[in-house]
Amino acid sequence: MNKTGAQHLVDVLAALGADVAFGLPGEHTLPIWEAVAGSGVRLFGVRHEQTAGYAADGYARATGKLGVAVVTTGPGAANTLGAIGEAMASASPVLVIATDIPSTLRRQNIVRGVLSETSDQAALFAPVTKSATTVESPREIAPAIERAARLAREPQSGPVYVGIPADFLSAETERAPESDRTERFAAVDIADLDYARALLSGAERPVIWAGGGAVRAEAGPVIGELAERLAAPVLTTFAARGLLPPTHPCAAPTPVHAPEIGALWDEADVVLGVGTDFDGPMTQNWLMPKPPKLIAVNVDPKDAAKNYQPDVTLVGDARDVVSQLVTGLAPRPGLSDLATRLRSLDTLVRRRMRADEPQAADFLGTLEETLPEGAVVVADMCIAGYWAGGYLRAGAPRRFAYPMGWGTTGFGFPASLGAAAGGPGRVVCVSGDGGFLYACGDLATLAQESLPVTVIIVDDGGYGMLRFDQDRAGVPHRGVDLHTPNFVGLARSFGVHADEVKGFGRAFRRLLGEFVRADEPNVLVVRASLKPPLNTSPRWYRAIGR
User: Fold this and answer.
1) pLDDT tens for each residue of 117-130
2) What is the DSSP letter of 329?
3) Of 86, 16, 89, 6, whose CA–CA distance to 51 is shortest?
């Protein structure tokens, strides 16, 4: 059946279950906006293309579904690059659909000066996507989107770019067929499985280290079962927060940056890494020593071995492989003792945290006590976000999002819009005053769509982490002290309810409780200055001998 290219595109999105997308209209993309009417696909209009990319990422992280960003030609597409780089570094399945200049105006190897023309727009995306392609004919739009969506979700997941010459969207055409393709992992070698089981069975102090790949594979329950059989603590990366419930007897209370938790790694004789690449931020730039024996479960053997060389690598889906490991492993004694030890470590860590920065302890305690059931917390690259990344107890997978893949300041607020669009449930954004200004114009989106987001802006009048770095180096402040707006007045000017408190005391507790239970979006500004936690690089205890 002949339809316009834009109609075929939207049909594919609907068939894929991608019922939410984010974009900013431009002259070239207007046919897509027309095609979504009545299609079942909801296209949220944002105020900056970078927000579209971050929102698609936040949607994907909170829901596990494909996030979709629809942007226009040239500068519109280029504006998404920072957000897509974060999605790539965090293996977030995002599909970027961008228009390109009309095919009738393009001349090979010549930049003619067509409005918004780029010599090779797809090439802009090559370093920050799994694949970047340009559709060559209108009839290829549908199969190109199908392929891209499949690739974005295939392990290891990540963003994919598809460029579409603008004239193809209005052209009426038939839809080219797309061949079915289902890829499966090869069966794990029996000898490798037996060797891994033997290492785990013979370990005196086994540790399980789980990353974002474990979350994407929904491997939490089988990892919890394996941990209980081994009486092994489970350490999680920032991307895997909430993989096990906080009450699980094997769940380590924080990442390894707290010395008390890092000791679990130091004493381990066998470490099982599941869905992780042992990156720099988690291993304090590899100052943590390689364990005596390392077993890796990963969809990509190169990814598994790029930082610490495993003794054996089991290639495949984390849930499937760990399920096979559990089979044949007899329960070991010591689970009760482990649970008691981890509770004791949690007490020590929390005591250290309160002594180190009492305001942070008050902030996190209030946040945990007031969050509604099922709420998602999205943290930005800011000191309050670092505290949340290290110490906030996430109740379940996909309840905490944090841009520690690439480290993109400005992620928090726009990503929270995407997480909220995936609803239902409240989303709480933790942002600094500097990072919030990256996308403050999307307060308009927040108000227009009435998204259930509570934004906490911790305002210390500048880039607090960078100020800490300069103070630590003993140099004057340069570039870090900011003139910031009246954030309450700013939010209210967009029609968003807002209020302000000083510090994280009773007023903060009362207002946050009201805000997270409201029906409408709101902004809570907190005037406070926090010291950064131990999970920030200047305070890594291994780097400074603590």
Assistant:
1) 999 999 999 999 99
2) P
3) 86
